[in-house]
Design a protein that fits this description.
This protein is mainly alpha-helical. Helices cover 50% and strands 10% of the residues. It folds into two domains: 1-80; 81-144, no CATH class. Helix 1 runs antiparallel to helix 2 and helix 4 (109-121) packs across helix 5 (126-139).
C-alpha cells in the first residue's frame, strides 16, 4: 500500500479547489499541500494502526499488525499460538488471575529483537516472557515507580556541599 498515492490525491484535490483562484492563492495551496505531506502520511498510518487494533480486538487468536517496511505500511496477520508455559507466571501461580487480556503496544525494533532472543534462550514464547518480566518488575520493591521528590520520606534525598 503506497501512502504517497493517497497524499498525492489529497494534493490534487487541493489543487482543484484553488484552480480558479489567483496565482498567489494557488501557489499558497500548493505549498500548504507539500508542507502537510508527511503529516498526512503519519495520520494515515495512525488510522491504519487503529483499524488493525480494532480488528484484532474483534478476532479470537488472530493478530493484525501494521508494519512499516521501506517507508510503506504492510499488514501482517498472524495466529496467536497458545503455548503452554514451562511454569506459570507468579500472578498465575497465586491463582488471582481469572482470565487474560490482550494489549497492543509499540516498541523499538532493537528492543523487540532482544526480547525475542531472551525468550528463545529460556525456551518460552515472547508472550510468556513478557508476562514474567512484567510480574517480576511489579512484584519487586525496585520495580515500583518512585514517588516524586516532594513525596519521598526521610533518607531519600542527599543534600550538602562538596569540594574538589
Amino acid at each position: 500500500m503506497e501512502l504517497k498515492d493517497y497524499s498525492d490525491a489529497l494534493r490534487g484535490e487541493l489543487a482543484a479547489i484553488t484552480r480558479f483562484a489567483n496565482e498567489e492563492v494557488a501557489r499558497a495551496g500548493q505549498m500548504l499541500a507539500e508542507a502537510l505531506d508527511s503529516s498526512v502520511q503519519l495520520a494515515l498510518l495512525d488510522v491504519l494502526s487503529a483499524a488493525a487494533a480494532e480488528i484484532t480486538s474483534e478476532l479470537d487468536d488472530i493478530v493484525v499488525e501494521v508494519r512499516l517496511a521501506g517507508g510503506e505500511p504492510t499488514f501482517n496477520v498472524s495466529h496467536t499460538a497458545h503455548e503452554p508455559a514451562a511454569e506459570p507466571a507468579p500472578a498465575e501461580a497465586a491463582g488471582d488471575e481469572s482470565g487474560s487480556a490482550r494489549i497492543t503496544f509499540r516498541l523499538p525494533d532493537a528492543l523487540k529483537g532482544r526480547i525475542e532472543a531472551a525468550a528463545a534462550a529460556q525456551h518460552m514464547s515472547v508472550n510468556t516472557w513478557l508476562v514474567r518480566a512484567a510480574s517480576q518488575a511489579l512484584d519487586s520493591p525496585s520495580g515500583a515507580p518512585r514517588p516524586p521528590f516532594s513525596k519521598r520520606g526521610p533518607g531519600q534525598r542527599i543534600t550538602g556541599y562538596a569540594r574538589s
